[in-house]
Amino acid sequence: MANEALDHDMLTTVDMTDVDNLYAAINQQGFGVLHNVVPDAVLTPMREYITAELDKRGGQYFGLGGQDWIGHSPLNAIFSAHGFRMVLDGLYQRAMRGEPPSPRILPVLRVLAGTHGLRHANRFHYDSYVVTALVPILIPNRPNEPRGNLVMYPNMRNVRGPALLNILEKAVVESGTACRLWRSPTVQRWLGAKPVPLEPGNIYFFWGMRSLHANEACLPTSIRSTALFHYGDPHENSVLKQLSQARARASLRRLAK
Ligand SMILES: O=C(O)CCC(=O)C(=O)O
Ligand SMILES: [Fe+2]
After folding, report:
1. Which residue range forms the structural domain that includes residue 19?
2. Which ligand is nearest to the CA of 65?
3. Which residues contact 221 (CB under 8 A, 6 or more apart)?
4. What is the CATH number of the domain that holds 127?
5. pTM here?
6. Count of domains forming the chain
7. Residue with the nearest Cα to atom 2 of ligand 1?
């Protein structure tokens, strides 16, 4: 692959001090940022990859999950970088005081475009992994157009309790009725929701399992693409967890109709 030379060559300068700073920032303001760590050498071919995929799909929303797509995409340079894994693992260990049950990172690519893209805006949810890293790839940036910020209610809950409680809470908070509340500007103001403007080149880290979050809508004529890297599921082996994931998949299938 064209980018093979880049693999393992990213994020070489991050160290434990960066991890400590990110950890403090995430706890204090909901998110932490590594600035200018994804070079154009990765972003440019990644954008070409996305436009090619969009062409195949009639210009409408698509999402890719799992280990397959990443290996064939230029973003593999980040995914396989030692420094990147070190940050994800360092954050998990600081938060949870131990190793995750599995060292796997779940990579997800989201491409919001067309009218289907709109359906995926303002869907407030918790991730089922402790640490989330967000890599913006394409962010709308024409004058006066909405940029599709990430919006979060920082650190709304704790995750070190029983799986059952966590999963029930997740189901209630993500229900249709509750979601109408979370997207209301008044509720967002009252409860201190935070817009996070995204800048390609940076990587954003937050507690996906603790912070209720969604992306704001952008124009159906624009493309907004982000890659998400999820790390560390403390309830990985729970049966309840599998039920919860089945519910999430069913909801995505409904959206696709
Ligand atoms: O694309 C974004 O800004 C957020 C996406 C997200 O939260 C997710 O896929 O879990
Ligand atoms: Fe998420």
Report:
1. 4-256
2. 1
3. none
4. 2.60.120.620
5. 0.93
6. 1
7. 215
